[in-house]
Design goal:
Layout (H helix, E strand, L loop, with lengths): L2 E5 L4 H16 L3 E8 L13 H22 L6 E7 L2 H4 L1 H7 L3 E5 L5 H7 L2 H8 L4 E4 L10 E6 L7 H13 L3 E8 L2 H5 L1 H13 L5 E7 L3 H12 L4 E3 L6 H6 L3 H8 L4 E3 L2
Parallel strand pairs: 1-2, 1-4, 2-3, 4-5, 6-7, 6-9, 7-8, 9-10
Antiparallel strand pairs: 5-10
Amino acid sequence: MKTILFATDFSRAANKAIHIATQIAIKQEARLVLYHSYRFMNTYDDNYGYPIDVVKRITDRKLNDLKKRILAKAEKPAEIILCNKHGFVMDTIKEPIDEFGVDLIVISSVGDTPLEAGYFGSIATEMLDKLNVPMLLLPPKYRRTTIENAVMAVDLKKPIDARALDKAVYFLRDLDTIVDVVYVAKTDEELKSEEVKEAGLKLRELLKNVPHTFQTIVGNKQVNEINGFVKKRKAQLLITFPKLHTFFEKFFLQGNTRRLVFEIDVPLLAIK
């Protein structure tokens, strides 16, 4: 992992999340891109409707101030790149992703209004649907800056994406993180099926170079079971592999990863 992009809206939640992004960048010796998108209707300091050139200058100043705060607290030097673009986030973020070869996006999951984001969605969950870059989503109240143990939620009924799993493996190895792998089966019959047993053996082989345990749970409510397992293991990170859904599924069903974004109390790493 060489380049990490931290997307900020300068909210309180984003200001807290930047410390985790910085620690990950330092530990992996990666450069950190501080990214913000601005528009003419951006509000700064309780004022509304600044001309676009004024908004650009304010954004430049805020990014520079953020960089200074990071460097003042960082234990080791960090390479930091400042980047801002005019436009909506989803219309502009792909440009720095391609320009800097971003390996990981870090973002606060719901900003300063988690209840509102839970009802109407957020930029973070929109990115989950539309971007193929691994994303680390940080809950607004999360305080820790280190990740020592993680939970990886897998679906053994779906084909294992070796490339996505490799990304998780590199992330865990670089951070020296222990992982508890968990699979939630709907029934005992499903858990005992040959398909699931073979997939479990294949997964453990792929994870042979990462310290891990493998757990299975039977339950109908996957999100609740995973959330409970994370709390039981006192994990500091949850790793998921969200699947692409059809438009119909997106409209009528809320994916488990999207639900976890709003219900989990620890950072969530989504890898596609």
